[in-house]
Design goal:
- The structure is a single chain.
- By secondary structure, the chain is α/β, with parallel strands linked by helices.
- It folds into two domains: 2-153, Alpha/beta knot (3-Layer(aba) Sandwich), CATH 3.40.1280.10; 187-218.
- The chain has helices at 15-18, 21-28, 65-78, 96-105, 142-153, 195-198, 202-218, and strands at residues 2-8, 32-38, 51-52, 62-63, 83-93, 109-112, 129-132, 187-188, 191-192.
- The strands form three sheets. The protein has a five-stranded parallel sheet, sandwiched between helices.
- The radius of gyration is 21 Å and the shape is elongated.
- It binds S-adenosyl-L-homocysteine (SAH).
C-alpha cells in the first residue's frame, strides 16, 4: 500500500478531499493511505510556536526549522524510504508525466506544506525535491499538495474503473488533449450527439476521436 503523509498546519483542510469520492475509495480498498501530520504538534513552548520573523528583516513570518525538522523525522520514522517533497513556487512545474513516474515508482511521499512567507531554507537538507503547481503564489502548500496527490492517486492500479481510462486521456503522451465525450440523452434542448458516435462503427469512431483530439490540442 502506498503511503502519503502531508505535513501541514491545517490538517482539517484535507478532510474534504481525502474523505470523498475516489480518494476515499482508494483508501477503503487499501491502495493508498493518506495521512496528515499536524505541524502544530511539533511547535515550540507552551504556545507551540511554529513561525518567526526572518533574519535580515522583511515582511511576514517563516516556518521555523525546528518544528519542521521534527515533523519530517517523525513522518520518516513511519516510512523510512519515503521521498520528502516541499511544495514551493520555485519547484519543478507539476505535469502529468511526473504524476505517472511517481505513481509507478512505488515509494511513499512526505509532503511539506509551507505557509506565510515560506520555510527556513535549512529544511532543504531533508528535502529530496521541490514541486510547484504553476507560476502563481498561494497562501499555503495545502492546495498544491491536494492537487498533486489527486493526480497521482487516480493513476494507481485499481483506483479508476476502466483499466485503460487513465492511459488514453489528456496529456498521457505529454501533450495531446482528450476528444469530446457525450452520454445520454441523444438530443438535449436540440443539441445532438455527433452522429458517428451512434453509428456503432468502431473504426470510424476511433478516427473521429483522433481528429478531435488533434483539434483540441492545436486549439
Ligand atoms: N514567499 C514565497 C511564497 C510563499 S507562499 C515566494 O515568494 O516564493 C507560502 C507557501 O505556499 C509556500 O512555502 C509553498 O509551500 C506554498 N505555495 C505557494 N504557491 C505555490 C505553488 N505555486 N506551488 C506549490 N506551492 C506553493
Amino acid at each position: 500500500m502506498r503511503k502519503f503523509q502531508v505535513i501541514t498546519l491545517f490538517p482539517e483542510m484535507f478532510s474534504g478531499v481525502f474523505e470523498n469520492s475516489m480518494m476515499w475509495k482508494a483508501q477503503k480498498d487499501g491502495i493508498v493511505s493518506l495521512e496528515t501530520v499536524n505541524l502544530r504538534e511539533f511547535g515550540l513552548g507552551p504556545r507551540r510556536q511554529v513561525d518567526d520573523t526572518p533574519y535580515g528583516g522583511g515582511d511576514g513570518m517563516l516556518l521555523m526549522i525546528k518544528p519542521l525538522w521534527r515533523a519530517v523525522e517523525f513522518a520518516r520514522s513511519r516510512d523510512e524510504s519515503a521521498k520528502v517533497v516541499l511544495m514551493s513556487p520555485r519547484g519543478r512545474r507539476w505535469r502529468q508525466a511526473m504524476a505517472r513516474v511517481v505513481a509507478d515508482e512505488g515509494r511513499g511521499l512526505i509532503i511539506i506544506c509551507g505557509r506565510y512567507e515560506g520555510v527556513d531554507e535549512r529544511i532543504m537538507e531533508l528535502v529530496d525535491e521541490q514541486w510547484s503547481i504553476g507560476d502563481f503564489v498561494l497562501t499555503g502548500g495545502e492546495l498544491p499538495a491536494m492537487t498533486i496527490i489527486d493526480s497521482i492517486v487516480r493513476l494507481l492500479p485499481g483506483v479508476l474503473g476502466g483499466e485503460t481510462s487513465a492511459e488514453i486521456e489528456s496529456f498521457s503522451d505529454g501533450e495531446t488533449l482528450e476528444y469530446p465525450q457525450y452520454t445520454r440523452p441523444e438530443v438535449f434542448n436540440g443539441l445532438r450527439v455527433p452522429e458517428v458516435l451512434l453509428s456503432g462503427h468502431h473504426g470510424k469512431i476511433a478516427e473521429w476521436r483522433k481528429q478531435q483530439s488533434q483539434k483540441a490540442t492545436v486549439d
